[in-house]
Write a structure and sequence with these properties.
4 helices; 16% strand; transmembrane; Histidine kinase; kinase activity
Length: 215
């Protein structure tokens, strides 16, 4: 019976854990995608105002003007301008974030952050913007999802064990009592403890043994 019990526990655990893993992984990616999309839309609201201000500034005053200009999430945004064939860095992070000309909008994933690159058109200028999304909130979300996954796995194992025991203990009793009857104790009757398929099996066996006694 132990082998059957183990098979039930393993089968239930593997199937339900796999399903739970897929659901939790999908939820995690969905929530992270939603967060990045929300931040990207916020960036699309911020940058046009910056472009409007910088379009009127001469090349030699661009960096100074930008550094004095304050706006939300400025510390997470890297900015450069392509104007009159010159690529002008307005932030001091071209080395750390490798800000350089890119040809299309793209979202990259680093080990500790998302990097969203987008090109905005200004008056006779192109604005190359990089928005860095820190992974801190994503890490917290992943930890919560991982904790949920572990708790679900433990719960599934416990529930599977209880269900397996509920099904197999009566079968173990049937086997034990049948062994007693096989030792010529034919007056013994199997004990019926439940009204389900196992109970029906006990009725059939008892009826069979009764017929055997009459022979």
């Amino acid at each position: 019976m132990k082998k059957i019990k183990d098979k039930i526990i393993i089968a239930n655990t593997v199937s339900l854990v796999f399903i739970s893993f897929i659901i939790i992984l999908s939820m995690t990616f969905f929530l992270i995608h939603t967060a990045v999309e929300t931040e990207s839309k916020e960036m699309d609201k911020l940058i046009p105002a910056i472009i409007e201000k910088l379009d009127k500034v001469p090349d030699n005053k661009l960096k100074e003007t930008y550094q004095k200009y304050d706006y939300a999430d400025k510390e997470y945004i890297s900015l450069a301008i392509l104007r009159n064939g010159k690529f002008i860095y307005l932030t001091d992070d071209e080395n750390s974030f490798k800000l350089k000309k890119f040809e299309s909008n793209k979202l990259k994933t680093k080990w500790d952050r998302f990097i969203y690159k987008k090109i905005y058109a200004g008056y006779k200028s192109k604005y190359y913007v990089i928005r860095n999304f820190e992974f801190m909130e994503a890490h917290e979300l992943l930890y919560v999802m991982l904790a949920m996954f572990v708790l679900i796995t433990i719960s599934i194992i416990i529930i599977s064990k209880i269900v397996a025991e509920h099904v197999l203990i009566p079968l173990s009793n049937i086997i034990s009592q049948s062994n007693e009857m096989s030792k010529h104790n034919i007056d013994l009757q199997l004990t019926k403890t439940r009204d389900d398929e196992i109970g029906e099996l006990i009725d059939v066996l008892n009826e069979t043994f009764n017929k055997k006694k009459k022979l």
